[in-house]
Amino acid sequence: AEQLPDGTVPWYVPNVYGNPMWSPARPGAAWGDAAAIVPWVLYQRHGDLTVLDRQYPSAAAWVDRVSELAGPDRLWDEGFQLGDWLDPAAPPDDPGAGRTDRYLVATAYFARSSRLVSQMARALGRHGDAERYERLADEVVRAFAERYVQQNGRLTSDAPTAYALALEFDLLPTGLRAAAGDRLAELVRQEGDRIATGFVGTPLILHALSSTGHLDRAYALLTQSQSPSWLSMVDRGATTIWERWDSMLPDGTVNPGDMTSFNHYALGAVAEWLHGTVAGLVQASPTGSELVVAPRPGGGLTWASTWLETPLGRASVRWDLHGDDLTVAIEVPHGARASVDLGDGAPTAVGPGRHVLRRGV
Questions:
Q1: Looking at the structure, do residues 334 and 203 belong to the same domain, yes or no?
Q2: What is the pLDDT of residue 24?
């Protein structure tokens, strides 16, 4: 009901505040892309096609609106954008002034949502739409590469969020993924393994590191206690995720800038990596019939556990590490099967029930 007739999605819903910064609604990347991302994630978790059917017109209208704004060159490079909002390098009074080019962020999300709408259309049997939005996504990816990707795999906006987007949204030309991953890891090292991403980059950066062979750097970020970091919040007494990495300053005073909520979950998106990579449990099909168990211990952790309510019932994983010996206990619900990858060879397939697998014993 809040979406405008031209497809624009407000910055927040319900749009009740009337703040002149946010009203009237203007198209903005990442925030507006919730129109495509949220229904797709719900479908991936619950397998309910009615969610896609109900939300498909909204998602398609959003992508169509962005396509109009980008024009034939397929680059969303004009207009107001929040960019990598609350990048810790941004000044307190200008939270959108992060390290990453705002229009790189916008074009990356344009590609992402175009792909998602294509996948939604295919799942719904709208094959003509699926092909049309797939072509659009391919055009945006090519435009992104021509504008922002250099031949050596570096990006014109040489910042962690830029690489995380390019890697996780599959925006890089063939053969450049490893170089981009290496550069991302180097940028993290240069920052002393302290986080250097805002709302856009934070949900992606650990995935981007671990998927390109830099699990050690991902764990270094995760376990860092110097600010800015997740654990620096904990060390200052936080029991919820803050809006800013430094909503509370080291001396105990509140950050003088706006956007200093002490209960604002965006930066808590790291939990997906904790469940899917640290503990190692991922639902691999919308019906819940396919699971992947692939724990990747590190960071000095000696155990981890997680569980997930799938459409078929609860799945769970717990692993314990004793020296080099890894023991993994798995519960697979009835009607499902799991591909178990302990990092020591070909995956093992297991069916419903409880299983214990070992590596290095």
A1: no
A2: 82
| 42 found inside a domain | yes
Q: For the chain, which residues score pLDDT lower than 50?
A: none
Edge-to-edge order in the sheet of strand 290-293:
281-283, 290-293, 337-340, 348-350
**What pLDDT score does 361 carry?**
56
Amino acid at 163: Y
**CA pair distance 90, 228, nearest whole angstrom:** 12
Number of structural domains (the chain) is 2
State phi, psi for 249 to the nearest 5 degrees: -80, 165
- 3-state secondary structure labels for all residues of 253-301: CECCCCCCCCCCHHHHHHHHHHHHHHHCEEECCCCCCEEEECCCCCCCC
Here the CATH number for the domain that contains residue 260 is 1.50.10.10
Listed residues 247, 275, 303: the one ending a domain: 275
Please report the sign of the dihedral spanned by the C-alpha atoms of residue 154, residue 155, residue 158, residue 164: negative
Judge whether 171 lies within some domain. yes
Identify the H or E element spanning 341: none
List the domain range (segments joined by +) for residue 338: 280-359
**How would DSSP label each residue in 180-192?**
HHHHHHHHHHHTT
- 1: Cβ contacts below 8 Å, ≥ 6 apart: none
Instruction: Find where tokens 């001396």 sit.
Output: 251
pTM of the model: 0.96
Is 12 inside a domain boundary?
no
The pLDDT of residue 264: 94
